[in-house]
Amino acid sequence: MSDMRVKDLAGTVGITAERLVEQLNEAGINVSKPDDFITEDQKQTLLQFLQQRHGKSGDGETTTPKKITLKRKSVSEIKLGGAARGGKSVSVEVRKKRTYVKRDEVEDTANNAEQTPQLSVAEQQAAEVARLEALRLEEAKRRQQEDEARRLRESEEEAAAVAAAIEAENKASEEAKLAAEEERKALEEEAKSKKAEKAIEEKVNPKPKQTTEKTLSASQLAHKKLEEADAKRRAANLARIEAEKALEAKKKAREEEEALEKEKEKARAAAAEAQAKEQKAGVRKTKDAEAKHNRDKSGRKGGRNDDDFERKELHVTEGKGGRRKKKKGGGASKVSVSKDQEHGFSKPTAPVVREVNVPETISVSDLALRMSVKAAEVIKTLMGLGTMATINQVLDQDTAIIVVEEMGHIAKPILENEVEQALQVSDENQGEAVPRAPVVTVMGHVDHGKTSLLDYIRRTKVTSGEAGGITQHIGAYKVETSRGQIAFLDTPGHAAFTEMRSRGAKVTDIVILVVAADDGVMPQTIEAIQHAKAAESMIIVAVNKIDKQDANPERVKQELANHEVIPEDWGGDVQFIPVSALTGQGIEDLLEAISIQAEVMELKAPEEGPAHGTVIEARLDKGRGTVVTVLVQQGTLNKGDIVVVGQEYGRVRAMFNETGEQLNHAGPSTPVELLGLSGTPAAGDELQAAPDDRTAREIANFRQTKAREQKMAQQQAAKLDEMFNKMEEGDVKTLNVVIKGDVHGSVEAVSQGLQKLSTDMVKVRVVGSGVGGINETDAQLAAASDAILIGFNVRADNAARKVIAEKGLDVQYFSIIYDLLDVVTKAMTGMLEPVYRDEIIGLARVDDVFRSPKFGDIAGCLVVEGTVKRNNPIRVLRDNVVVYEGELESLRRFKDDVNEVNAGTECGIGVKNYKDVKPGDQIEVYERVLMKPTL
Questions:
Q1: Which of 100, 174, 491, 763 has CA atoms 20 to 30 A from the CA of 573?
Q2: 8 Å CB contact between 648 and 697
Q3: Would the pTM count as exceeding 0.85?
């Protein structure tokens, strides 16, 4: 195609596309951008325009010589008079003009004629060198091919000779074996015959018979044959050894000959390269001389020698040029080089065995570096052990030890938590243990009155602040009673908050199991019993809602006894206290039971020393930052202390109790809220006081690195399993969600609840989760992964709302976990493929088949069941086996076309594209019914 883009033409010409657009516009061709197309005529127009601009006519002939004029202007200032007397300044302008005339065409022709012979000679020499080099390369290639063919032929002949020698040796060995077998058989036969002859001779002639003739027996003949065969075998063996030695000698001689030939080839190539360089240097000298001659001639012809625009020659004083004088101390010192070129390093005769420190986790590259081997060797060893690994994959300590020992080194396991051991304070450094308040966790099924019971004890109404009237956080309170202080932990009862109940049971001393008297034992009640027994905590059963008419405490006792919770009045060790959170009935008895149980347990903890505690809950507050609820278990936590909490650290900037009052100190069994941590820790992490900020930072960074490495190792290990699972599952729908919540425990519970909704058809995948409001990063993540944004007691900020509106994301806000699970279940159901079910609506029996030249084969049928409809799909059954699936071509009742025929009626049926209908067949009519998909 003659048309081309402007930018393509610019690349061919060698100028920028913008410059070419300007030239086209100056030539009268309208072009706006480099992507426009131009025709062949437009290119010719541009060429003529440029020729005219550069001094050529339209037919290509050069016009008359032209001249060029250069103008130069400079401005300067001159001060008149002294500066103290206010002198004047005068501007001086200097203008210069130089005119240069283009050289005549005749002179250019003469110059070209002068340099042509010199250049032609040099070019001829270069061409001759190139031709000789090509001939040399062709000759070398031919010799190489001949040598390779000869070597191949000789190697085949030598291999054939060795194979023949081996075959001869094998044949001789077989003959020797056969001769040995014949000798053995001959000896056995000879022994038997001698024995028989001796017995006969003793019976016939008692005197021994003297034999004078000496004949060879069969065994002697066989032995002689064996010796001959053995001699042949030894000769064949020697021949094979000689052939192999000759083959080895020829191989060695051939390798030496090839090495010598390579050295000769290198020498010839070096000589040819040197000759080519000399020829090129000669051509370059000729061109330089010609160029110098032309410059001298043009300088003599026109122009002034004192032109300011020309480069002047650098003059050097006579006698000062050349090399510098040598220093008076003689010439340059010579460096003596030893003739012995051997280096001082000697290869070790035995493998080096190293002692390798193996931490709890280590990457493949680091392990290879510690053993001073290449990473490929470690990967090869791992593959031999059945593990596919990459250079950056993290190995656990056991695997790394096996690899180190497999490679011949000594593994030395080390612990990486040496930094953390600085926080471990010995018992001697702790203060004296003093009695502390019991930590009581209230557990039970949802809506059994746990929070209401605690409300009555605290004289507050916490339930009114809960969404839906159910607890979805862990509440930590310290209550003053008439019998002393008690720390209460209120845990959620919903099925999704299993982890929260588990953490509550681990930090508690006494578990109050709340069971509604009118509802009995429920699934979360059983789960609470299991958590309490796993934590080895004492259980006190509070039978709540005793004031209701349908309350049945005996039923509660019977059901709990089935789970090994035996009341005291039944001979067990568990106290059952009937209470009513609404009227206050039995509350005093419950508090008394708690106090008595605490006195029996003799709960003590050191009050002096560094603080230790457990994170109950953590959330991200927009105004205050990270807010962490901590239960101090031993020591005293002071305002300003530096603490390490899981993978986070920081200084305690402020502490608050459950009522929002600021605290400066918090002793054992005290729940407090902390401000000042670097991030949001996970619920259940341990709080430890650090001696200084540097130690706390090092420990937190170490834990973060360790967690990241372990996560990477788990991901690497799960990749292969995930691939196989995908292969087994096939096309499985996936619902991606991004979860943000107000506290860490709620986010964890929602994530686990959604993942439990996964089925074989639809899986829920939590793409991201976190504590705090929905920000722009969360919205971008949801857009990139096509996920649903879920906010649990949080909302999106302005930047996130803008992204949500632009991307059209699906955002759902919830405050009750029931509604959240229901909405996600509906979304999962909507992702299922539609399900169709075949419903049989009619069955017709074929009694006879009529062949019509107009309509083809028509089956005379009797409708046995249901209704036969013309527009529905059908199946042809023969002996209750489907032989055809299709549709009806015609349905007639007598001579009339009908749309349907009811049961007990005869009709004529024509099956479309099927001519093998036989009497006795059945025609089944069905319709596809859309079923509502379910998980």
A1: 491
A2: no
A3: no
